[in-house]
Specification:
Chain A is mainly alpha-helical and about 500 residues long. Chain A has 21 helices and four strands. In chain A, a hairpin with a 4-residue loop joins strand 1 and strand 2. Chain B contains 19 helices and two strands. Classes of the chains: A mainly alpha (about 500), B mainly alpha (about 500).
Amino acid sequence: MLAWTIYLSFAGALTQALLPKERAALSRWLALGVAAAGLAMAVAGFVVGMGQGRMTIIDRPWVPSMGIHFLLAADGISRVLVSLTGLAAVAGVLFSWNIEVRTNEFFAFFLALIGGVYGVFLSFDLFLLFVFYEIAIVPKYFLIAIWGSTRREYAAMKLALYSFVGSSMVLVGLLAAYATAGSHSTGLVALGHANLPVSFQMWCFPLVFTGFAILAGMWPFHTWAPTGHVAAPTAASMLLAGVVMKLGAYGCLRVGIALFPRGLDPWGFSFAGIGSWRDVFAALAVIGIVYGALVALAQTDFKFVIGYSSVSHMGFVLLGLMTLNQIGVTGAVLQMFSHGVIAGLLFAIVGRIVYDRTHTRQLAELGTMHLSKRLPFAALAFVIAGLASIGMPGFSGFVAELQVLVGAWKVNPWWDVAAGVGIVVGVAYTWRAMQKVFFSDVLPSVHVLEQEHGHELAAITWPEVSGVILLAGASLVVGLYPKILLDAIEPAVNALLAGGGR
Amino acid sequence: MSGFPILTLLTVLPLIGAAIALASSKHARNVALITALVSLALALVVWTVWSGSRAIGGYGLIERHAWAPSLGIEYHLGVDGLGALMLVLSAIVTLMSVDAAHRVHHQPGMYFALVLVLEAGLFGSFTALNFFHWFLFWELSLIPAFFLIKLWGGARRGPAATQFFVYTMAGSVVLLIAFLAIFVSTHSMDFSYLTLLASKGWLEPMVKDHIGPVMPWLAIGVLAGFAVKVPIFPFHTWLPAAYSEAPSPVTMLLTGAMSKMGVYGLLRIALPLFGTQIAQMRTPLLVLAVTTVVMGAWAAAAQKDLKRVFAYFSMNHLGYCLLGIFALAVPTGGIGTDTAVLTSQAAALNGVILQMFNHGVTAAALFWFAAIIQQRTGGHRGIDDFGGLRKPAPVLAGLMGIALFSSLGLPGLNGFPGEFLIFRGVFPLAWVAATVSMLGLLVTAAVILTVIQKVFTGPVPEHWATFPDLHHGERLALAPVIGLMLLVGLLPQLIVGGVNPTVVYLLAHWRF
């Protein structure tokens, strides 16, 4: 059933490309239908898979001479992330309802990107996973370059280059692993059992991990993320932050950690408290958390605030992965879901609900617009999203970050101290943005404003309301009842860490 | 009543009310009134039902379900005498606040919805027995409070709201970190289980094994988290701005009910888990408590604005609670057995709990009167702005006088028995602190008399000659509150009788 998420998305993309240009409404409804069907199948797959381990969906030889299979399968981690992708897809379509330029092409690229993402999360063959990973890069480039804003060519190029550098690192590592293993299969499970030599894992792990982590926004390779997010049209930034960054983190876990576990062993010497690749990447993750938060605090562009916040929150995912214990890695996967939903919501508010009406993203200018009165729905939505983002208990982010912190504490409490600083700064930048944009005190009256601007702000539309409810609701449900996802994630993480997932 | 989730119902009810209030902007106040009344009725049911099984002293009306087991998170609710009394107090104060707020012109639906969400936060935090569950509501109450100040407050509401939020949030982060450390060491976030560990003296070694000798630091962190909320000197600086800039009905909620969350936290979390550490830090903590008492009183003496005077009164009165709490942490290296000490501790603890209730009612009433005066004068609330109001408005003067005297601690009114019990308990345990605090009592008395003199006696300025007295609606609304003050003042047993078994139970489980 889950495989249909992939096929359907690509079929939808193809159909969109063939649709006549002027039928924008048809394109929208078709895209919404495809995305909703994908979400329905993802959720159905999630429910059916409850309590089950890894389930193979389809396994066909593809390039038999090289042992490459078209092998799709899903374990708890995949199911959670596929559901996230479904949510992000539906929300993305809802918040793109006002795209009027080349609507059908837009949704074609959008659905192709979604199909690629589904594919990565469901592939259990390295080669296949890599193919889907690459497929996802191309539509991103066009979405930004054609429908983007601020410095879109530069941002699109930067994003594509970073992605390609990352994936070529991954490719080198994977080919080396394939050759070294001497195996006749590129299946993740088969390679995991290949007992790669420790010295090989020692250099291959950092290569592959870094390659994937670039897309997860790991400091100092994060710089594509803020510029890319800002330049992208709303739906694309929602997908970039919401699911594409998760592709990187997922690759780190599914390929990096699962195939090269010994690469995390201590080097046998230590320098300034750093004695293994694990320490190195944990340190980078923590730096990312704090750095992203501090830079977000200094931004004057609303969208950049959210862009840098993504770097900070993805730091928690990487930190959770580096704990290598059940609670920390579970927290990392939950944080992938949580950040996917929350970042999507934040970008939707900034890009679609606010920017498309005010045509400015400067905090100072937005502050004079009396937005809490003129767009009370936007203010309410941002308050909810902001609370979720700062990790308020009751929202998914709290549980996820709590698990990461607990897991990290068991390894090295100092990581927690530094991450705690990041959380406090996170409260500060979110609060600053909220105050400046929605609740600025120095205000002319609404009347004067409307005369100045000559028109009222367009009313909030139903796709926006439903999108906000969908995403905020998901974060709230998971925050109040994390067991829904934890029951799926925990066994899968256990299996993966124990080696059974390899 | 076993099996019926009355505590869950109590918490959910205001949230439903909030949704309805939001939807029916026009009738929002009536919706809020009805919700608050029903909540009060339910809270009284909880109080009586719990009292029925009070001989045990432990938790009653327990609801327990799995939530997120791997994180030690459970849906675990229950009340003892302390919790049940706080539920009643929250319900009373919310009702008073809604009653007092009959002139909300700007977005009334949102206003009353936020008030009801705040009530749900209070109920939730007073019934939760699991850290996560409790923390959820602790934070939940912060959000509506922030927006109530921010959107409906006075001229300088922006900075006041931000300061309030930042202080409390910083306190929360510290609390969270401390509990993270405890969770990592014990794999539990359950208050009763952790209390059991601590009372056997096992908590500290466990933390030491897992993390190191950080228990005193955790104690300081937890204390700081609560100190902000109460507030304790020197964490109080957010208070005058927040209390005076918030609309008066909101201040009633802040001081009447929310400040009790801090004191409650000290009793429910800090003393049970960190009793030993608190006992070791007893002297500096007592100094802070006494400073809070005395400074609050002197600062009140220096104010010209009625609301600021009352704000510092609040600090002063909660200072007595802190005095009682820290004084009873006598370092004994175990669970106390000395009868004389236990009697004093029980007196002090009973006094503290009674004082929490009384201060809630009295402080809320005082801010209500401030709101009434402000309404009539178009914003004037300086104590020098008035004079001789006794003549044009005798009923107002009389009722407000009773509330002021209750705040002063006049025997026969509710303020007295609580403070008396606290001093009765504290004197044998820490006589220096008790004596110095008496100074605070004297200063407060002087301030209250000055206020009465300046506002109600003397010549009537010409423009106040037609100052309208309380109309029937207001008299009707205020009468039960004043009646409650008299009732508790004359029959403190009504409350102490319900609370005492809990006090005995708690003292038998606290290790100092």
